[in-house]
Amino acid sequence: ARHRAPTPRTSLALDAGCGAGRNLPALLAAGYRVLAADLHPGMLDQARRHTQPGLALIQTDLARLPLRDQAASVIVCHGVLHNLPDHTLLAAALHELRRVLAPGGVLSLNTFTADYLDPCLQDLGADIYRLPNGQHMTLLDSGRLRELLRHTGLSVQGTPAQYL
């Protein structure tokens, strides 16, 4: 999703829900100052292996990012949103990502959708599914996700990717 035109690479990139830090080397190599954010301390411990100048790590909730408005020119949020347990948190996280995205910034979003459901998922209703391990996921179909992104103020660009 994009919010106007591109901005220079020398600005801040936020890896929202950085996990073990898979995206950090590429963001750092591209010349960004990088803030890696995750709710789980164990994930941040793993992400620390990428520590180098230009990288900061922070434990935080995506619905309450401790950043000023329009602080990040790039936001990467891969494999995170479907792990939020309900619509309220999903919408709050998207609004917060939009708030910290600078004009001209790019949000790279990768999330599971309800377009292709694994038969092991138990449908609990209201787009909430339970995995065999008991974890809950919020899975919107791609049309509803696009609508939510537009409602948040983001324009969707690019071709959705699918994998099985």
Biggest beta sheet summary: 6 strands, mixed
Low-confidence regions: 2-7
Which overall shape is indicated by the principal axes computed on the Cα atoms? Answer: globular
Topology as H/E string? Answer: EEHEHEEHEEEEH
Gyration radius (Cα, Å) is 16 Å
Distance between the termini: 23 Å
Our estimate of the beta-strand percent is 25-35%
Tally of structural domains: 1
* Helix residue percentage: 10-25%
What kind of assembly state do the chains in view correspond to?
single chain
Instruction: Output the strand order for the largest sheet.
Output: 1-6-5-2-3-4
Classify the fold: give the CATH topology: Rossmann fold
Structural class: alpha/beta
* Counted beta strands: 9
Tally of DSSP helical segments: 4
Mean pLDDT across the residues is 90
Q: What is the CATH first-level class name?
A: Alpha Beta
Description:
- This protein has 164 residues and is an alpha/beta fold.
- It has a single domain (2-113, 141-152), classed as Vaccinia Virus protein VP39 (Rossmann fold), CATH 3.40.50.
- The protein is 23% helix and 27% strand.
- The strands form 2 sheets. A 6-stranded mixed β-sheet has the order 1-6-5-2-3-4. A 3-stranded antiparallel β-sheet has the order 7-8-9, with no helix packed on it.
- The chain starts with a strand and ends in a 12-residue tail after the last helix.
Compact overview of the structure:
This protein has four helices and nine strands. The chain has 164 residues and is an alpha/beta fold. It has a single domain, classed as Vaccinia Virus protein VP39 (Rossmann fold), CATH 3.40.50.
